[in-house]
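Milestone M4 deliverable, item 7.
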Amino acid sequence: MIPLKSANNLIVDTHFDRVFERLQKSIKYVLKNGCKYKKVRYTPDATERAFLNTLKQKIILKGLVTASPERLQLLRRYMLKRFPHIHLNTNNLNRLLYKIFVLDAYSTLDKHSFIAKLDTDTCSYCNRNYIYSLSKSSKIKPELDHFYPKSLYPYFGVSFYNLIPSCQTCNGLGVKGELDPFSNEMVSPYLTKDDDYKFTFDLTKLDYLSPLDGSSSVDVILLKQIDGNVQIFKLDELYKLHNDHVLELVVKAEVNYTARYREYLNNYKGLTFSDAEIDRVLISNYTSLNELHKRPFSKLYRDIALELGLIV
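Output delivered:
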């Protein structure tokens, strides 16, 4: 729902440097010993051995780990064309690559450090929850979702732009899980645009005697959406549960609260506010497109506030 900005090259290259030796070492091990999964021994055949020998080259591994979001789509197509059954977890090469990229490389990834370098504070999929973590040793840890699931696409196990910072709800069991985003027509947050989603609302009645007690009379509607993402993450259903946020904005618009308070802040002696800062104070959330990642529900607040004329 909230677009993720591409990281600068230094951050992406540093990520590769941290996983490169582990990957190369694991590939050499698998070439020599294969791997074991559920008491079954998997060893590379001649074609797979040639592929792994090519893969262990630094330039090839770097191209895979640092591939752009668009490049990941092309690599997916290439891999499925060359190895049509690679997405099956019973496939020989799938198991070998899972050992290399997931069990050996991703399992040792410092997720706290990885997310700390990304410029985002809320879940990219839903914008409903923070994704803060306190420290490496804390039980409150960040979540990373493999947009292309690691069981289907193990070769993307540590690809920088396949690792999506997300909340425990969106990354939980029974949500996206191991569903294939390609067949479910999902879009990566790195390829999501600012106008891919748009909220509106339907207010059937406003009780002027108890205006904040009538949230059941407000229906939150996604006027524009990415269907696959909304269906998988149940965004339509979840946002309908937060209609109290919309009702508060409606009440502010009805009592002309923001116009008077905007004038007050503009004329406040000793303090100077930008227009974006005044908007933030008025509706209690960020409204600038480049700041929506900073607070939950910011996209909802921005869209509804614009519709109500609370901000311009």
